[in-house]
Amino acid sequence: MTKRVKDIRKRLEALNVDRRCFKLTNRHLEQQVVRQRETHSFVHEEYVIGRENEKNHLLELLLNTNMDMKENVSIISIVGIGGLGKTALAQLLYNDEAVRVHFELKMWVCVSDDFDVKTIAKKIIESKTNDEMDRVQQELRKKIEGKRYLLVLDDIWNEDRELWLQLLTLLTDGAKGSKIIIITRSERVAKISGTSSPFFLKGLDEEQTWKLFSQLAFVDGKEPENQKLVSIGKDIVKKCSGASSKSSLQGKQVKDNFIAKALLR
């Protein structure tokens, strides 16, 4: 047992030398909880790669006041499997200067599993009181009445149309041109929300995925000269299959992946 511990120590010492040679950096990774999560509107734009076309297409929809002539409020759904970067794309839109100027009011709410109309309404008006539902409804309607607003509802899982209609009833008093962006993995969620044409987000191609991985894994985002590390990185990128969040996570953990593989050899 003692001999094995010594062997592991030797390997770790050797890997520490490799780390300095490869210029690998330590990055703190926050604990993540699947589905039970809280998102926000801020984004590091330099870490969102390969989404210029998608952003421009959705910007046109957001800034188009004639998109839906029948209702003041229209709904845009961003649909795709987990890890494609749906939230990051919405964050780009939310923080765009043209969007800031166009909408009088902007709100970001992470919904996740709990599609409770009262809770969501409270989140939208940022109320922390224990008011009854009718009071919350009045506050929400007053907040958005006559204003052209943008509301992002992230991580929607609810497939109960009745619950969605209850929430939508509270959101119809905005001015013409108001928009609601729904971020979901479920095509059914997009359908029951009344979205006319859901936007299906596709994965990044291999070149874009490698660029994102390199940005997070290597010093200054530059591809290292050491081909051993490049080979390991590109193997990881292939397994990510165009998922930007997986690429980001793997990029941040590349040092730990390298150590684990070496110890198991």
TrEMBL record:
Per its UniProt record, what SUPFAM superfamilies does this chain match?
Answer: P-loop containing nucleoside triphosphate hydrolases
Keywords attached to this Swiss-Prot or TrEMBL record, sorted alphabetically, are: Plant defense
Q: Name one Pfam family in it.
A: NB-ARC
Q: Which GO terms describe its molecular function?
A: ADP binding
The NB-ARC domain is annotated at 67-218
Q: Gene3D superfamilies from the entry?
A: P-loop containing nucleotide triphosphate hydrolases (3.40.50.300)
| Top-level lineage group | Eukaryota
| Alphabetical GO biological process terms | defense response
Q: What is this protein called?
A: Disease resistance protein RGA3
> Which species does the entry assign this protein to?
Mucuna pruriens (Velvet bean)
